[in-house]
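Slide 14.
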Amino acid sequence: MLTAILVDGPFFIRRIRQIFPSSVHYDAKVMADLVWRLSAAHLFERNQPKRHLFRIFFYDTPVFTQRVTLPVSKQQIDLSKSKEGQFRVAFQKQLQRKRKLAVKLGEAREADHWKLNEDALADLLGKRITVDELADEDFTPDSYPKGIELRMGVDLASLAYKRQVQQVVLLTGDGAFSSAAELLRHEGVDVVLDPMWQNISEDLFSYIDGLRSTCPPADRAAEFLARISSDNYEHEDVSA
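Slide 15: predicted structure.
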């Protein structure tokens, strides 16, 4: 069975940062390895025939290059030189080195608003810090790339009509894929959703054939990282 795996990049990064320790949040190599490992894990399932990888498609935002005013210090910076910008550049380069993985970029909107990072929000709500203690690094540009859903939809339709695969795995928590997933199922393609342990609405079950998360739950994330850090097996060697 040939399997294509489509990864919603912004969703993947957000969920990894919610599940895994902060030490890996900006580690481009570890994050890229997690993309490959968690995707490739779908090729193996107990009591099921082994799947063969068609390709992993990773959809992400291009790196912001505009100059913006930081929310706390009010300094002007080039976003491509910010912590997040530098991470995204290094992360996408690491992904491009992975075997059978294609990086597809959407079209970014201008970043004219800021949002509070989840860790900082949790500290604020938990009264571990005050508003006056917030720093620029506690915020990220509030801009979602345009075109990701469209690109995913076009690729899903192409996979269906060309009958290139027998199974599609979607790493996303968004229901925007439902129409494309319905088309795939009508064409006889097995559709599996991996929401990375995020809760999904009941109506999504009518558009998928299976639900499976390959990443560890939060209470086992540190153990998982320790195990893969000592694992010398190169998952890039998994072949179609």
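Speaker note: Residues 232-240 have pLDDT under 50 and may be disordered.
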